[in-house]
Amino acid sequence: xxxxxxxxxxxxIFGQSHAECVGVTIDGLPAGEAVDEEALRVFMExxxxxxxxxxxxxxxxxxxxxxxGVNEGVTxxxxxxxxxxxxxxRSKDYDKLxxxxxxxxxxxxxQIKYGGFQDVRGGGHFSGRLTAPLCIAGGICAQILSRxxxxxxxxxxxxxxxEDARFDPMGESKEVLGRVKSAQFPTLDGEAGMRMRDAILxxxxxxxxxxxxxxxxxxxxxxxxxSPIFGGLESRLAAALFAIPAVKGVEFGSGxxxxxxxxxxxxxxxxxxxxxxxxxTNNAGGILGGISDGMPVIFRVAFKPTASILKKxxxxxxxRMEQEELQITGRHDPCVVTRAVPxxxxxxxxxxxxxxxxxxxxxx
Length: 364
Description:
This protein is of the alpha+beta class. 27% of the residues lie in helices and 23% in strands.
């Protein structure tokens, strides 16, 4: 399995949903960087399950155990390894799924690729549970970035067609980003958030699920970070974001809306302000030619509805090759978007720090 990522820093994610633990190793972090474990705990809590009626009833403490790579509170140059112990598991809920693949899940493709040896409990290595170690890596990277003036924040842009206000593509303050991060339901418009929550609970009562969109902004990213073609900042961000389960689309700046614009509308005119090159608009989303232009990097991530629903669905018995009816049991999020907000931030933080370190290496 290709569960590693990065060029200057190498992030490897391991574990399964119902295994002893899930975890991450991070190789290449600069030595001497402080790791605030309390700030990391707060970051992890934003993703943790069982925090409200609109999330899964599975409860996990998500307590991070840093095993190595940190000495007296700072990175020491050795690879950092950390784990989270799995506790609240119900593996019996998944007994029949080796023969009856769930629609919308990776059960069928995993069976084809791994020949029945894959761990089906809770989705195994394909589970959203694996976003917890990604958040460990991203939470640590975000701390390092913040000390360099780079801030990352995200919010729920939409759920079930209900839309929040958008981030200002020209930039958002650290205070605004902090306010969203501390909100129990991370939207800019509290009323929109309440309507989204109602839509989630309605779908839950009906045994169904809903999807949505997360918007993320990276401020303070200097110009000149990234590379053309395959090493582009957009390419690397998209690769990390598509590693998040349930992600089905990513757009930068004006995104697909650019297809409806004329060049005279879409082009970001260039200006000089206080001795600095800026653009008057930010339709490019802060990236041109795969390289940051100094404006905020802004993008949106589309999440499909949770595949695990209580409604009866058609599938096939792989042993008998006959049509079967399947009703999924277990504990599942009726919408993954609410818990995905810090996961998107984490993926962005890993890529941003990796790209910044690469730029610095190129200048040596």
